[in-house]
Amino acid sequence: MSLKQAVEILIVEDTPEDLELTLRALKKANLTNHIEIARDGAEALDFIFGEGPHLGRKLEDGPKVVLLDLKLPKVDGLEVLKRMKGDSRTSMIPVVVLTSSKEQRDVIESYKLGVNSYIVKPVNFEGFAAAVRDLGMYWLLLNQPPKIEQ
Prior knowledge:
single chain, alpha/beta, Rossmann fold, 5 helices
């Protein structure tokens, strides 16, 4: 790992209110060690692949998990998921779709593309905070990712 701290969570969310709720829920669960935020799919892909403004970022420095909204500007969440899971350098990074879409075609397409979990955002903060806390605890503390040789 490089001297720069590894990213634990990449949040890909374009709605300011949903981003604030996610950050508050993670803070409440003490899961805010190192979070990066992308506000559209193109920004997420630049970060994940170390391109554009993130040129030179080492891919092994994270993220440990990606919280991905589907309805994003520039590049939608399904395309971000497809690119991540289709590249051997990033295919093992867990991706949790955290979206307001309950549409079966989105659920099915997400799983076909390799999503690790699909969560529909609860409408109240308590339910949302509990969901974010539980997924953060699982993916950051309990899940055992494979060691990837570079």
